[in-house]
Amino acid sequence: MGMKRKKKNNKSSGKLGNLDKKITDILRKDAGKAYNYKQIAAKLGVDDPSSRNQITKKLAQLAAKKEINQVDRGKFMVEKGANYHTGILDMSTKGYGFVIVDEFEEDIMIPQQNLNSAFHGDEVEIYVYKHRRRKKSEGEITKIIKRKRSSFVGVLQLKKDFGFVVIDDPKMYTDFFVQKNKLGEAQDGDKVLVEFDDWPKRADSPFGIITRVLGTPGHHNTEIHSILAQYGLPADFPEEVEEFANKIDLSITEDEIKKRRDMRDVLTFTIDPKDAKDFDDALSFRKLENGNIELGVHIADVSHYLQPDTILDEEAYERATSVYLVDRVVPMLPEILSNGACSLRPHEEKYTFSAVFELDKNAKVKDQWFGRTVTYSDARFAYEEAQHIIETKENTIPEDISIREEGAYEVDDNIVEAVLELDRLAKKMRSVRMRDGAISFDKVEVKFHLDEENEPVGVFFKTSKDANKLIEEFMLLANKKVAEFIGKQKPKKTFVYRCHDEPNEEKLASLQTVVGRFGHSLNLTDRKSVTSSLNSLLKDVQGKKEQNLVDTLAIRTMSKAYYGTENIGHYGLAFDYYTHFTSPIRRYPDVMVHRLLQKYLDGADSASEDVYDEKCHHSSEMENLAANAERDSIKYMQVKFMQDHQDEEFLGVISGVTDWGIFVEIEQNKCEGMIRLRDLTDDHYEFNEEHYAVIGRKTNKTYQLGDEVYVKVKNADLVKRHLDFTMLGLREDFER
């Protein structure tokens, strides 16, 4: 008997190590709820008299020190006081995290042992410890309020009776344990999607269930589907949604036409990328007797087909955006709508939602009208074709530019006149925007020539020319004027705005330091000098080795644009009111804008702000996920492209310097890779943060941000989407 008791006590005493922390942890996790010694003993998994005595004593001591409160005889709790906060967990790649709390300037550091099973992006409640001889406040996660996601992508390592899934995301600090009966069809080495199931108290890893086998790591389709799965983005439409879409009446009826403004007889055309399949927007052009121009911005009337409270609408809302990966588009709407009924294809009548403006010769808006229309597109042009008209002022589109099957063709005189006049007006509007403080981001986009197997056979850069800017300018006009029309109404009406806050001052200051390394400068005196010097900088770097780096860093100084019901204006465009009205085929906020605009045109009362706030927040979140997926797919394709060029020497520019490596962006294809400091064997290099450089201890040799260097591919990892380079040397040394 005595032996048994002694053994039990030993076992219990192990559980009662660091007892004061264990008790305060229990009370903190249920702050505001009172516990007695028996309940705490049960939580700790002990029930012998000795352990209960220790707990009773410890409770009395903690209450005496005012670390906990005795609220009733034998009942103790921790008040939910000022030390409890909520925020979003941002994991580092080193296993600890930071919680971003609105009330604090500094983020709260969460050591790994205090994460309490929270993952990157989760909304959490934290307890913040008092400041103690530390610069950063530390905290502990006491509750997971809302999981950011529950599914993760990783590679299965199969053992005899169970498996572990090693997660791809570098911000995930743990693998997942999967029991034999939860493995599904997955085989050892497969890339899989694992669903979080539970994280038992004493388990080292969370338990997961494999819900989908994605394929063999490194294979093209596996990796593209992995990118979608990683962000919880769907690859296909559910069958019932496709069926629902296929049953929608897509016919253009006389009854419906009577309810709309008929603009089928006005010259109308579209200008889009040559590979576009969904045409959201068309422009119409008509000269008025008073010498002014009637310009129509006609947008696909998606909300006519997409009715609220249907499974199709729910699916579109959940997706909130189309996702543009390097080799495919994952559309927001099924193809029958996105590429069919809603697409403003040439020589077809379509239902549209329009903003029609009367513009004088100086591009000033003299009159405006918003409403539902029916239109007929007379012609479709690729940007290259419209650009040719602008540059040559001629009717003939040559064969090498033409997107028509017949090759070279003649354009109607009226369309040539319309394109040239709209180009002239767009340039006037753009110069006014720039004068008012808009920022001109003409960032170079990296694109790939893909063969039939989706292998990248070449890289090219997409730049914005006059034809692109013509379309952009009139889309901006429609978005701005729709937002003004609703935003200025009294009493205030709930609406969806595209908001963009002022840039972060600290980021602007660090941008100033970086661009100084390249001989550029910024004037940060006031708003006007910031925008004009930013525009000068972006113009100065065009075509230079540092262009992509400076463009990227300048964009990062900007706040993120988002959707909201509270209008704060759009800093980057220098507009007091702005919305998204022009792309409802690929963005759900535009659908909401169409619905609200029609509602208010019909004289209805204001919609619920709370409902639209939530929808705006969801749309912004999904936009960010889609942008991350798009970025990852470009990175994947760059790594794939570089795999075939492992023996070549490339000239690059140092685009980043850290205490573990140097980032280099290759000038001819914008692929970025890293040289690890430990691989620089000619010296021991140390990071100098102040100079954005690494410096050799013995030789004083320096590699600095902006330096041109020659590199070679050392390793191209498709699964991690990561490039490692070997440093060959500075350009000046190499070319001597």
Automatic annotation (TrEMBL):
Family from the record: Belongs to the RNR ribonuclease family. RNase R subfamily.
Sorted UniProt keywords: Cytoplasm, Exonuclease, Hydrolase, Nuclease, RNA-binding
Superkingdom, natural source: Bacteria
Family annotation (Pfam families): CSD2, OB_RNB, RNB, S1
PANTHER family the record matches: DIS3-LIKE EXONUCLEASE 2 (PTHR23355:SF9), RIBONUCLEASE (PTHR23355)
Organism this protein belongs to: Zunongwangia atlantica 22II14-10F7
GO molecular function terms noted in the UniProt entry: exoribonuclease II activity; RNA binding
Described purpose of this protein according to its UniProt entry: 3'-5' exoribonuclease that releases 5'-nucleoside monophosphates and is involved in maturation of structured RNAs.
UniProt protein name: Ribonuclease R
Main location: cytoplasm
Catalytic activities: Exonucleolytic cleavage in the 3'- to 5'-direction to yield nucleoside 5'-phosphates
